[in-house]
Design goal:
The chain is mainly β. Helix content is 0%, strand content 50%. Strands 2, 4, 5, 6, 9, 10 and 11 form a 7-stranded mixed β-sheet that branches. A 4-stranded antiparallel β-sheet has the order 1-3-8-7, with no helix packed on it. A hairpin with a 6-residue loop joins strand 4 and strand 5. It is globular, with a radius of gyration of 13 Å.
Amino acid sequence: QVQLIESGGGLVQTGDSLRLSCAASGRTFSGYAMAWFRQAPGKDREFIGTISRESLTTYADSAKGRFTISRDNTKNTMYLQMNSLKPDDTAVYYCAIGLIYSILERHYDYWGQGTQVTVSS
């Protein structure tokens, strides 16, 4: 069984940066694709970006140029570096892993509990 734990969220101001981490336990995930999603209050969960087992990346338009996903397979950890944060980035951020490199939620098998990011004006 795989467990994912997100960390690094917090309260920041517009223009600030944060780095989120997603640590996995239970098994190694070098063979998995990994992704970040987020959910704002009253909104559907939305795709942020994904990274393949070869470290290829795909980003949502809202993340391009500001967010960077990376992974360290030796540590079973994925990162989301967020720069130039805006109030619209306020959400609970979730990490997920799955066998398929995809932007779709249904292709991911294991999910973390989320970490809150709040960006004030």
